[in-house]
Amino acid sequence: MWNQTMQKLGEERSVIREIFEYGAKRKEEIGAENVFDFSIGNPSVPAPECVREEIARLLKEIPAQALHGYTSAPGAPEVRAAVADYLQKSFGVPMRGDLVYMTCGAAASLTITLNALFEEGDEFVVVTPYFPEYKVFVERAGGKVVEANTDANFHLDKTELERAIGRRTKAVIINSPNNPTGAVYGEDELKMLAALLNGKSKEKGAPIYLIADEPYRELVYGVSVPCAMNFYKNTIVCYSFSKSLSLAGERIGYAAVCPACENADELFAAVCGAGRSLGYVCAPSLFQRVCANCLGKVSDINVYDENRRLLYGALTDMGYDCVLPEGAFYLFVKSPEADAKAFCERAKKYELLLVPSDSFGIEGYVRISYCVDGGMIRRALPAFESLAKEYFG
Ligand code: PLP
Q: Global pTM?
């Protein structure tokens, strides 16, 4: 036999993928322009020009063996140094290259970090609603997920966090800008969380870590994302270039241990050990270098911003209830009926493909991904209107 948990995970299709595949089938049946697929978070804006330029330059200037061969396990030293330098210049964190581990995207950054931290009996606190893979990653590492609800606007709730964090907590995972709500946690929130974590760490007699999952860091609309490392020393940042540079399929990101972290070098050794044991050594070599030379560059997020305004304005006018997202590229809308899955089924009648919130650890909402063509949003508005009439008259 083989591992039954793995078989179940492989068979249990992700809700988002299932809807996406249903959409592909419908497109074949009725034409792509008649299907309004808001399911998946695949960047719709091309990578910035610097990415293509860098690929071309690197291919020309660096001999193939050096460019495509192995780098050292945590990444090419000059790439790690460039990331550290960028973090230092951007956020004033005295980052060192030898605390940066290059990964295959944020998913790898998270699994590596969780495996590096986990000890028998550990719990990991996540705030609802949360990226569904957190549960898969935490449980595979051996840990238990403990959920803390957010407030009415999907921001951190002190009482809930106080309840959820205890002696067994190894880390709290936050994701700002947030998938699926678009919430961006401000300085006051991070100060509150840091004070709570400091107090709880003291009670526990050991540090409780903060895992800051930040694949949407640069995707913000008129607000900035405070750097978690400047608020709480025992922080590990899990970053990816999937969204900022529209490179989701190239699988490239990093995990960075805050230099002020207690025993940072030993913890980083555990990160390297986790990367090694999971087989996540030497992230894609060409893209390590491409990203190192495109740090600070971002795809054209004005396109997402226009989509955000268009969809939020139109949907709220029709009677739907949602909070204006401050970042990422998702709109989190209250389902007009308690059962969000039933609402999504009804939406399908109008060829609208939305994701029910249940797998994000909360009921009664749908996620609408607006990293899509603006033309599709405009074509979909009459469908949203017809659907709204079924509920609001
Ligand atoms: N964390 C969050 C909140 C995400 O939304 C995603 C991807 O959508 C990931 C992590 C994984 O990112 P990557 O594709 O870079 O592995």
A: 0.97
